Amino acid sequence: MIDNLESVRTQIAIAAGRAGRSPEEITLIAVTKTVEPDRIQLVVDQGVRDLGENRVQELADKYNQVQGAVRWHLIGHLQTNKVKYIMDKVGMIHSLDRWALAEEISKRSQLAGIKIAVLVQVNVSGEVTKAGLAPEEVPDFIRAAASLPGIQIQGLMTMAPFVVNPEEARPVFRQLKQLATQIAQLQVPGVAMKHLSMGMSNDYLVAIEEGATMVRVGSRIFGSR
Ligand SMILES: *Cc1c(COP(=O)(O)O)cnc(C)c1O
């Protein structure tokens, strides 16, 4: 596992170099779903600072079980009625995909006296099984959500379709980057298009070449689930 982590870090640096980017621009989020806390602790002890979970309950449990200066990322579908359980635990929500959720996050964070960093999830590929807004819906959504006081929009997130050859995911990543550029040009007050959360175990290197600032890697570090 530690070897896997080292190899992922090396690969990230190499892919960044190929794209003329600095590896410091890229945050490795270790995706810990189904992984036991003691195994998560091992990678945290190796300096991993960002952990990703796609379920509220699992995040809340592990939040208490993993020690260290860790930032938790909620990367999976978020039910509106569960927002309250993670407000004080999550550093960033990657799966903002609808208006009711934006309102709820904003309401809860205002009550807590904080602002939550969020990414807007985009369904670039248009697969019906995937969550996220259609690309053409994103500019208006962001303009509206920018006015909600409890959230801070920091970028976009997508999941590429599963493909055997990661090259096939490249157009999806490229489109997300283009969309982020287009939105940045709108200069919506309070909105920063500084993060692109894209790339998983199978395709994170291609995602980095296309501009990812956050890659979400699970099985490549912890083994297959
Ligand atoms: C599980 C998951 C990942 C990581 O998947 P791997 O293929 O194991 O790297 C990344 N993003 C999301 C949203 C996930 O649910």
Short description:
Helices cover 40% and strands 19% of the residues. It has 225 residues and is an alpha/beta fold.
SSE blueprint:
Elements: H1 2-18, E1 27-31, H2 37-45, E2 50-53, H3 56-65, E3 71-74, H4 83-86, E4 90-96, H5 99-112, E5 116-122, H6 138-145, E6 151-158, H7 170-186, E7 195-197, H8 204-209, E8 214-217, H9 219-222
Parallel strand pairs: 1-2, 1-8, 2-3, 3-4, 4-5, 5-6, 6-7
Pyridoxal-5'-phosphate (PLP) binds at residues 31, 33, 54, 75-76, 159, 200-202, 216-220.
Describe this structure in words.
The chain has 225 residues and is α/β, with parallel strands linked by helices. Helices cover 40% and strands 19% of the residues. It has 9 helices and 8 strands. Helix 4 links the parallel strand 3 and strand 4. It starts with a helix and ends with a helix. The model has no long low-confidence stretch (mean pLDDT 97). Bound molecules: pyridoxal-5'-phosphate (PLP).
Strand-residue fraction?
15-25%
**What proportion of the residues is helical, as a percent range?**
25-40%
Reported for the largest beta sheet, the result is: 8 strands, parallel
Describe the strand arrangement of the main beta sheet, using strand numbers. Answer: 7-6-5-4-3-2-1-8
Structural class: alpha/beta
CA distance, first residue to last residue: 13 Å
Bound molecules: pyridoxal-5'-phosphate
Spans of at least 5 consecutive residues whose pLDDT stays below 50 are none
Would you report the number of β strands? 8
What is the overall number of helices?
A: 9
- Name the average pLDDT: 97
Report the C-alpha radius of gyration, rounded: 17 Å
Which geometry do the CA atoms define?
globular
H-E string: HEHEHEHEHEHEHEHEH
